[in-house]
Fold this sequence. Notes:
The structure is a homodimer.
Chain A: H1 9-21, H2 25-31, H3 36-48, H4 55-64, H5 77-89, H6 95-105
Helix pairs in contact in A: 2-3
The first copy, chain A, binds a DNA duplex through residues 1-4, 24-26, 35, 37-38, 40-45, 47-48, 50-52, 54.
Amino acid sequence: MTEKCPANIYGRRLREARNSYGLSQEKLGIAARLDQSVAGSRVSRYETGKHEVKLGLQKLFAKALALPLKYFYIEDDEEARLIAEASRSDKPVKLKEAIERKLKGK
Amino acid sequence: MTEKCPANIYGRRLREARNSYGLSQEKLGIAARLDQSVAGSRVSRYETGKHEVKLGLQKLFAKALALPLKYFYIEDDEEARLIAEASRSDKPVKLKEAIERKLKGK
DNA sequence: ACACTAAGAAACTCTTAGCTG
DNA sequence: CAGCTAAGAGTTTCTTAGTGT
């Protein structure tokens, strides 16, 4: 464990969203089509703000987490929470389970 | 002139916002604290999607244009327009003029 | 299992200078 | 003037391998 504090807004929201699904960094990375061998270390650096995320990968994270791109740049916590709820209420199925089902399917 | 088509959402919104103020690429770059010698060519590549913008500079663009960070990642045109209006209606002074005043002050 | 990191390899962006309408 | 781009210089990220909890 021992999570380090995110240093920018994107990393903060990414970690928030991942934790809300109870996913590990590696599993989130795999859900976003990163190779398993690098998924954990890359997500770690994105969350802590060591590296920035290219737009193509931002889209994959957004899709995997069922959130709009803009979510990761919303600075107000309350607004972010509302958007997250609204985005997910569209989907009746629990997404954590959907993601983990996909991962096992491979 | 001869504007090339933006290849991603960030570039599209950046150009939109810049045009709404009637600023040139060079002037926008200078307003975001880029050196005059590079301002035009860099903004050009950000808008056309050749290069991606680091978060630190995204914040400077957002501030110069009086828009929230998330604006540049809103995919729906109608929503983007609404946010732009709302963000600017806070400010009674016309921002194009404010920006150009700053530029001349140097 | 989970989160994180150093170091060299690989990929990207920046500056300069110059082109087109 | 306004927008765009090639190429080498400069900077960042990626992969690998490994640390510590």
